[in-house]
Amino acid sequence: MFEVPSLGDLNVGATLPVTLLALGACVLLVVDLFIPRERKAITAWLAAIGLGVSLVLSLLSLSGTVQLGSGELAFSDMYRADRLTDTINVAALIAALLGVMVAYDYLERTRLQRGEYYVLLMFSAAGAMLMGAANDLVIVFIALELLSIPLYILSGFRRPQEASEESAMKYFLLGAFASGFLIYGIALIYGATGTTNLPEVWDAVADVVAANSAAKFLVMIGAGLVLVGLGFKVAAVPFHMWTPDVYQGAPTPVVAYMSVAAKVGGFAALVRVFGMGLSTFVLESGAPAAWQDTIWLIAVLTMLLGNVVAIVQSDLKRLLAYSTIAHAGYILIAVAAAGTAGLENTAAQAVVIYLIAYAFTNAGAFAVITAMEKDDASNTSLDALRGLASRCPWLAAAMVVFMLSLTGIPLTAGFVGKWFVFKVALQADLVAAAVVGVLTSAVSAYYYLRVVWMMYFEEGDGDAATPPALAWAIGVAAVGTLVLGALPYLLSDMAREITLAFGG
What we know:
The structure is a single chain. This protein is mostly helical and 504 residues long. It has one domain. It is 72% helix and 1% strand. The chain contains 20 helices and 2 strands. Strands 1-2 form a two-stranded antiparallel sheet. The longest helix has 32 residues, at 162-193. It is globular.
């Protein structure tokens, strides 16, 4: 018989950041009905306040100033409120706040100002946060859908523009297909272990391996299918096909948010599922996890394809789309390192550090494109960058910061992220993956620095619109990128105490 969970089992206090955000989105959805179309700034401000409250709560919990709830576990052990949860919350909420700031003026000038934009963004952010807190495979699936479905809708927000509708349809169809792989993989893991609770999966997989049971083949196939589902979400090769078309067709503010939020949620789930639940899945005693070789090979292919194909792109949005594919490869190196016994926590720390650095950098780069883009979604080609430094010096300077960070130049947040990823890769003896990562970073310098060259050393015409909210978003992203690069201990201290839970 179904047992109704007690208040102690729910432990709602531990889930306050994501619970308040989800409830706030529900309330805002109703409130927005009474806000006139010409006053949607109120909806934007209310969304920003809701995201800000959740961010403050997450930062207070991260610093230890406030203890939320009565323990780590909530929602009948399906939600884990630990250090990893707090840091993923911070990354997702930073992306969402920047997303609101980037979108407001864009929606005004393109006459797309509809309050549901901000509500959908809040729901999507809640999904990313839940993926970071998942202590159960069921929560992973529910959170993935909560993250993804609003993004499908937001991608088509410029309807009836054909490119936007096409990007939404492609994203939805491929996303639904990937969700099928994920749920089937979860079913196979449940069939092999008898549970979907990740610490219990950890115990059960260890027993399956020790007994050399035939169930290990179910675990292997299930892990592969889960990897396909989550690999689509983070745009890893060969599950990346949707990325360039969706990024080019979707509204640029949506891409600014989506490029970060999808990776934050996807990689958080990968760390939870593989670094926590399946870390005991080994084929030989003392060997790394059976999935490690597969993930680092995918990482290598992802870095190679993303960086090489980006070189030939003439559209800035497509260039950054392949750039995001390449960066998924870098982060996957750290996920692969979690397959080495004793490095699970260090690998999770490297993933989180990279994600926070990436949140400021990539959202800022797309914010600059938003400033350049015309109302009809044109003017996003590389040629539009020519002479930008003479027309809008501060905007060009901000873009230089983002390009240097994406390259991984010292004193930027991107360098800090790559440093920790390559460091844990060497600790896990993934030397080949680390070498490919360094070499492809050098390759990426060509197309990133080409952007800088065109802004400062070539002539062009045109202008860029930087209204207040957008200017603030670009400024916050640039300052965050530089501060985290100059003071890397801010990131390392934030991630230092991340510990994955093991055992039932």
